[in-house]
Amino acid sequence: MPGDADWTILGGQLALGTLLGLAVGFTVKKALKVALVLVGVLLLGGLALQHFGFISINWAVIEELYVRTVEHTGGLWALLRGWAESLGALIPVAGSFIVGFLIGLKLG
Q1: Which DSSP string do the residues of the chain spell out, in sequence order?
Q2: Domain count, the chain
């Protein structure tokens, strides 16, 4: 019958999606922590160097770079929407991937 599902394939897709989501979520959280610490150290170092007169930070260029890269491309929301659209064809894998991703973020 056309409505019958192959449960072994569906179960495999769900397990694969959950496992991949868990791995990606865990890794993303760890990488974001490292990146935020590095950005913080660089920012504080740059501000200290500017305070003591060693360098001059051109904040207008930094703001223009931010506007060009984040606001015009849509930022994180556009990236997540693109992921959702590409995973839409694989509903079981995508759904379990999202669940695994959220669990990975929680554990990481």
Answers
A1: -TT---HHHHHHHHHHHHHHHHHHHHHHHHHHHHHHHHHHHHHHHHHHHHHTTS----HHHHHHHHIIIIITTTHHHHHHHHHHHHHTT-HHHHHHHHHHHHHHHHH-
A2: 1
Question: Is 80 inside a domain boundary?
Answer: yes
Q: What is the pLDDT of residues 28-86, one digit of tens each?
A: 889 999 999 999 999 999 999 999 999 998 989 988 887 877 776 666 677 677 777 77
pLDDT the model gives residue 11 = 72
In a domain, 97, yes or no: yes
Tokens of 85: 């659209």
Residue ranges making up the domain that contains 58: 9-107
Q: How many Cβ atoms sit within 10 Å of the Cβ of residue 96?
A: 21
Cα–Cα distance measured from residue 15 to residue 19, given in angstroms and rounded to the nearest whole number: 6
Tokens of 69: 């890269």
pLDDT tens digit sequence for 1-23: 555 666 776 677 777 778 888 88
